[in-house]
Amino acid sequence: MLDIYTDGSFRKDKVSCGFVAKNGSNIIHCETEVYNANDGYANVSGELLAVMRAISWAYEHGYREVRVNYDYAGVEHFVKDWTPKTRIAKVYADFIKKMGQKMKIEFNKVVSHGDQNNSLIDSLVRQRVRMVTKRRLTPITSVISSYEKEVLA
Q1: How far apart are CA 71 and CA 20, in angstroms?
Q2: Tens of pLDDT along 77-97?
Q3: Could you give the residue ranges of the DSSP H alpha helices within the chain?
Q4: Average pLDDT over the chain, rounded to an integer
Q5: CB 122 within 8 Å of CB 4
Q6: Over the Cα atoms of the chain, what is R_g?
Q7: Closest by CA position to 104, among listed 67, 78, 144, 54
Q8: Which single residue of 31, 77, 125, 135 has CA 20 to 30 Å from 14?
Q9: Residue 78, CA distances (Å) to 40, 48, 141 in order
């Protein structure tokens, strides 16, 4: 089973998201991205986009069993027992349910800053959101729309 550690961050109208993928004790992939979020999206968006990106990456690379290690409770609860109210939460829940038909997805809550891998991805997304200038960033709404289209396909 592939272990994925995800996180998101927000700073001054920018959202970052990222994940670390581990096969056993080996990090096999690490990815971060930053989006323009001047339309009201904040840290939760980064948390949810990180999971969607990670699951998409895992599926595209042939993994059919993943464990998502997260520190934000909504990562699991929006899929299982919370009613998503925002556009990103609805798209996220639908995406995870759709991908759950194609692959096994487990969730594992980790203590924020209490897990070495969670601390690593937390540090990477925080650094990335600080370093990237807002100029020419993709709007987060465009990214959400692309996942929305994928869910509806």
Answers
A1: 14
A2: 999 999 999 999 999 999 999
A3: 43-60, 74-80, 87-100, 116-131, 140-152
A4: 92
A5: no
A6: 14
A7: 67
A8: 77
A9: 19, 10, 19
What amino acid is encoded at 125 in this protein?
V
The CA–CA distances, whole Å, from 19 to 24, 39, 48, 83, 149 equal 16, 24, 11, 25, 22
Dist CA 60 CA 58 (whole Å): 6
Q: How far apart are CA 23 and CA 123, in angstroms?
A: 21
pLDDT of residue 111: 87
CA distances from 99 to 11, 12, 88 (A): 30, 32, 16
Contact 122, 6 (CB under 8 A): no
- Residues 79 and 81: their CA atoms lie apart, in Å, by 6
CA dihedral for 19, 116, 96, 24, sign (positive or negative): positive
Give the whole-angstrom CA distance, residue 146 versus residue 39.
Answer: 17
Report the pLDDT value the prediction gives residue 22, as an integer from 0 to 100.
Answer: 98
114-135 pLDDT per residue, tens: 888 888 998 999 898 888 877 7
The token pair at 111 is 């203590």
Tokens 């729309």 belong to which residue? 145
Closest CA to 121 of 79, 71, 60: 71
